[in-house]
Write a structure and sequence with these properties.
This protein has 222 residues and is α/β, with parallel strands linked by helices. The protein has a single domain, classed as Metallo-beta-lactamase, Chain A (4-Layer Sandwich). The strands form 3 sheets. It has a 7-stranded mixed β-sheet. A hairpin with a 3-residue loop joins strand 8 and strand 9. The N and C termini lie far apart (41 Å). The mean pLDDT is 94.
Length: 222
């Protein structure tokens, strides 16, 4: 546990380090990724956890240089701008969800989350690679369905997947909102199910899982 009711877990996969935080008030999963021997750090989603992420990065003597958004819903991006101001990290999001950073949506309106309109520094595309540290590589996998520009972030060598609101433990993201597409979600889940079974999955909400533990989804994707 850490302060302000933020839960924290530290994970090591080869040289890749993962700091997984569950931040209030909506229990979003947010992540700090870094490599042994390097102070470069990537943030996967911020939600309303800018202060917790900044504090933990300082404790680890890390320098966040990029905020990777798995999608543009306000409950995941509300404090992107705040964390960028604290760290000078660049905000990155898929090109099809970039417009969402400047707009209110069902998350901000329905959950009463205040947001400041911001612009992305980097617009991501499918297959793009993000390198950090000495040898770590993340691959952007476009997984639309929950939103048009939802992505999953894949560390292939270490077998780690950050799935946002596409794939959950025992479920998947809602497909009844603005920009959602049930058919696109099926195709995205099918794509993720083709990854190696032992791949660890770190979603935007709820517990961690593996690809092989979610093979029940084949019933709706085949």
């Amino acid at each position: 546990m850490s302060g302000n009711n933020t839960q924290r877990r530290s994970i090591r996969k080869g040289s890749l380090r993962i700091e997984a935080l569950v931040v209030p008030p909506l229990s979003n999963n947010v992540y700090i990724l870094y490599e042994d021997g390097s102070d470069d750090a990537l943030i996967v989603d911020v939600a309303q956890g800018a202060s917790s992420l900044f504090q933990r990065a300082r404790e680890l003597e890390l320098r966040p240089f990029m905020i990777l958004n798995t999608h543009g819903h306000t409950d995941h991006t509300a404090e992107d701008g705040a964390l960028r101001s604290m760290t000078s990290a660049k905000i990155a999001i898929h090109e099809l969800d970039a417009y969402r950073l400047a707009l209110d949506d069902e998350a901000s309106e329905g959950l009463g989350i205040k947001k400041e309109p911001i612009e992305a520094d980097i617009q991501l595309t499918n297959g793009q690679q993000i390198r950090f540290g000495k040898e770590s590589i993340l691959k952007v996998i476009h997984t639309p369905g929950h939103t048009e520009g939802s992505i999953s972030i894949y560390a292939e060598k270490e077998g780690q997947l950050f799935s946002g609101d596409t794939l959950f433990q025992g479920g998947y993201g809602r497909v009844d909102g603005f920009g959602s597409d049930p058919n696109a979600m099926k195709l995205s889940l099918k794509k993720l199910l083709e990854l190696p079974g032992p791949t660890d999955v770190y979603p935007g909400h709820g517990g961690f899982t593996t690809i092989q533990n979610e093979m029940w989804l084949k019933e709706i994707t085949d």
